[in-house]
Design a protein that fits this description.
The structure is a single chain. This protein has 8 helices and 10 strands. It has helices at 50-58, 98-106, 117-128, 145-156, 175-192, 203-209, 226-230, 233-239, and strands spanning 11-21, 24-35, 39-43, 64-70, 76-77, 81-84, 163-167, 195-199, 212-216, 220-224. A hairpin with a 3-residue loop joins β9 (212-216) and β10. It is an alpha/beta fold.
C-alpha cells in the first residue's frame, strides 16, 4: 500500500515525557512529533515502556513533560484522543450485543431505559467507518478477535479524535484480520486526517503501512521511516546482537 505523505497541517508534540515508579524509571526524556494524516508505529522490546507511554499520553499515568497539539492554523488546543486497548475483558457468555455496547458508551441513560432504535442509525454509521456495520446485532462473545478490534476501533472514533492510540490492537488476531485492521487504520489516517500512534511487534506490517517509526527502549533511540529505523545501528544493537 502506498503511504500518504501530505502537508503537515496539524501536529501533536510529546515533549520531555518521563514516568517513574518509586526509583524505577519506566522511560525518560521522550520526545517526538505526530503529524495528522500519518500512521506512526511505536516499536521496542518488552518492558521498553510502550504501553505506559500511551497511558501517560491519555493522562491515566502520572508523568513529567507536556503534550502539545496544534491545529492547521497553528492554534494550541487540547486534543481529542481516542484509544483502543490490546484486549477487552468481558463475559463472553453474556447476551450483550455490539449495539448494546455502543448504547452504553454513547448515552448517559441506563441501557434498559433507553430505546435502541433511537441510536441504531448513528451506531450503524459509526461502524461503517471500519466496514463493520453488519456486526451491529452480533453478540460480543461471538465476534472473532479481528471483528472485536474493529468494533473497538469504531467506538474510539466517536467523537472523531485528533489523535488515535492503538495498543497492540491485533495481538492474537490472524493474518487476514491483521491485514484488514492495518489497511483500515491507514485509510482512516488519510480520510479523517488524524494522527495514529500504534504499538506493534509485526515489523512486516509496520514496514508496509507506517509513515513513521519510533524505536523506544526506556528512551527514544531512533525516529524515521521504517527503512531508516530498521537499518539503524540502534535497531541492530537492540534486536539483532548475538
Amino acid at each position: 500500500m502506498q503511504k500518504h505523505h501530505k502537508a503537515k497541517l496539524c501536529e501533536t508534540k510529546v515533549e520531555n515525557f518521563g514516568v517513574k515508579v518509586g526509583d524505577l524509571v519506566i522511560f525518560d526524556d521522550v520526545n517526538f512529533t505526530l503529524n495528522c494524516g500519518e500512521l506512526t508505529a511505536l516499536i521496542g522490546p518488552n518492558g521498553a515502556g510502550k504501553s505506559t507511554l500511551l497511558k501517560s499520553i491519555l493522562g491515566e499515568v502520572s508523568h513529567t513533560g507536556k503534550l502539545n497539539y496544534f491545529d492547521a492554523k497553528g492554534k494550541h488546543l487540547r486534543p481529542i484522543i481516542g484509544y483502543v486497548p490490546q484486549t477487552l475483558k468481558f463475559d463472553t457468555t453474556s447476551p450483550t450485543s455490539v449495539l448494546d455496547l455502543f448504547q452504553a458508551c454513547l448515552t448517559w441513560k441506563p441501557v434498559w431505559l433507553f430505546s435502541a432504535d433511537s441510536i441504531r442509525e448513528k451506531v450503524s454509521k459509526i461502524l461503517s467507518r471500519v466496514q463493520a456495520e453488519y456486526l451491529i446485532d452480533r453478540r460480543l462473545g461471538a465476534l472473532s478477535g479481528g471483528e472485536l478490534q474493529r468494533v473497538l476501533l469504531a467506538l474510539a472514533m466517536e467523537p472523531l479524535p485528533d489523535l488515535l492510540l492503538l495498543d497492540e490492537p491485533v495481538s492474537g488476531v490472524d493474518e487476514v484480520g491483521m491485514k484488514i485492521f492495518y489497511e483500515l487504520a491507514a485509510k482512516l489516517c488519510a480520510v479523517e486526517d488524524m494522527a495514529i500512534l500504534l504499538i506493534s511487534h509485526d515489523l512486516e506490517m509496520v514496514k508496509k503501512y507506517a509513515d513513521q517509526v519510533i524505536l523506544l527502549n526506556k528512551r527514544v533511540l531512533k525516529v524515521g521511516t521504517a527503512d531508516e529505523v530498521f537499518n539503524s545501528a540502534e535497531m541492530q544493537n537492540l534486536f539483532f546482537r548475538l
